[in-house]
């Protein structure tokens, strides 16, 4: 984090606020542009925007950026998605500042490009945008949105639904594993170490609590105790105790010796 602090002190002024709102606005604009085009022409443009590592290596370098501008295919998804993405972006800029959001999202783009060059997958920015939701949920888990304007749902629930959907997608399409992995690498790098540290700390606290409770647990009360071996009716409920001539209790095992 110190390295990131140094970068922010030097280049933070270059980060323009409203990154997610800008991308959302472009999604809407590109979608409506596609509406006035023939399906064949729109499909041809989409194919030029997609991330394709092999074609980037052959000179189509714009694909390293253009893939995040491929919009959804329905008007409802584009409009609501743009509104939601802008809201998430404003929240993360409030938590991080514009510079760190640029680093987070730009790092995710870079990871996707490198992964595509290595494994050859073709992708849009869909899974990358899901990491914006996941990051927002880490800071504002109890924030609520009104789905379809009247169904309240917490952001943390949406994040878990997103994780479940991604897992099911990979189970159904195992070949997409590397695309999903590199799409979420920015989230894993940003929040993974802290998550592991917190889990390890919780495990240590749990172990210390268990040892303390074990050490301070009062001994179970007993009614009979053998004067010879020291066993009680709590140690072995099957023992039969008798009082000898001295007035001491002796268990059935010791009486046979």
UniProtKB/TrEMBL annotation:
Annotated membrane topology: Multi-pass membrane protein
Highest taxon listed in the record's lineage: Bacteria
UniProt key word Cell inner membrane: no
Regions annotated as coiled coil: none
Compartments where located: Membrane
GO cellular component, one term: membrane
Key words, A-Z: Membrane, Transmembrane, Transmembrane helix
Main location: membrane
Membrane-crossing residue ranges in chain numbering: 12-35, 41-57, 64-89, 109-136, 148-170, 176-196
Protein name: Peptidase S54 rhomboid domain-containing protein
């Amino acid at each position: 984090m110190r390295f990131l602090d140094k970068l922010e002190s030097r280049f933070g002024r270059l980060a323009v606020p409203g990154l997610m709102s800008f991308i959302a606005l472009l999604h809407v604009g590109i979608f409506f542009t596609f509406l006035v085009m023939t399906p064949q022409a729109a499909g041809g443009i989409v194919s030029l925007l997609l991330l394709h590592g092999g074609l980037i290596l052959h000179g189509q370098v714009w694909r390293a950026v253009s893939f995040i501008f491929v919009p959804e295919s329905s008007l409802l998804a584009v409009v609501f998605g743009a509104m939601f993405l802008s809201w998430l972006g404003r929240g993360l800029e409030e938590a991080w500042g514009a510079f760190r959001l640029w680093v987070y999202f730009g790092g995710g783009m870079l990871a996707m490009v490198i992964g595509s060059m290595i494994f050859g997958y073709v992708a849009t920015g869909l899974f990358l945008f899901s990491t914006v939701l996941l990051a927002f949920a880490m800071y504002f888990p109890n924030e609520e949105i009104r789905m379809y304007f009247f169904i309240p749902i917490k952001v943390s629930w949406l994040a878990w639904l997103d994780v479940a959907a991604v897992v099911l997608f990979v189970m159904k399409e195992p070949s997409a594993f590397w695309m999903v992995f590199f799409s979420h690498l920015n989230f894993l790098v940003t929040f993974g170490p802290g998550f592991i540290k917190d889990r390890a700390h919780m495990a240590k606290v749990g172990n210390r609590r268990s040892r303390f409770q074990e050490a301070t647990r009062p001994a179970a009360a007993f009614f009979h105790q053998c004067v010879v071996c020291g066993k009680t009716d709590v140690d072995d409920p099957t023992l039969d105790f008798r009082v000898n001539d001295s007035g001491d209790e002796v268990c059935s095992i010791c009486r046979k010796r």
